[in-house]
Write a structure and sequence with these properties.
Helix content is about 45%, strand content about 0%. It is an all-alpha fold.
């Protein structure tokens, strides 16, 4: 289990002031891995259609396979404009 995933689960639990046992934190973290989420992909559909699946391959920069240059430009214009001043930053490349 990735240590940072365990740390994030613990941080979220602490934020909500919900003390959790190490065993429960491990279970939550395991269920939140991409591999396990993919097993139950029906839970990650917008509609009950194959094309509505929200989980993809889990590959860095995989969004480039779905965004046309025009869609990417629209995303940057509309979404990133709305996020200005929020403190949220996106790094689309590693």
């Amino acid at each position: 289990m990735p240590r940072d995933l365990l740390l994030h689960v613990r941080m979220i639990a602490n934020f909500f002031n919900k003390p959790l046992s190490d065993e429960l934190i491990n279970r939550i973290a395991e269920q939140c891995t991409f591999k396990n989420m993919k097993k139950y992909d029906i839970s990650y559909r917008i509609r009950n259609e194959e094309s509505s699946l929200l989980l993809r391959k889990g590959v860095v920069s995989g969004w480039k396979n779905y965004f046309t240059p025009e869609l990417n430009e629209r995303f940057e214009k509309e979404v990133l404009e709305k996020l200005k001043g929020t403190g949220l930053e996106f790094d689309f490349e590693l």
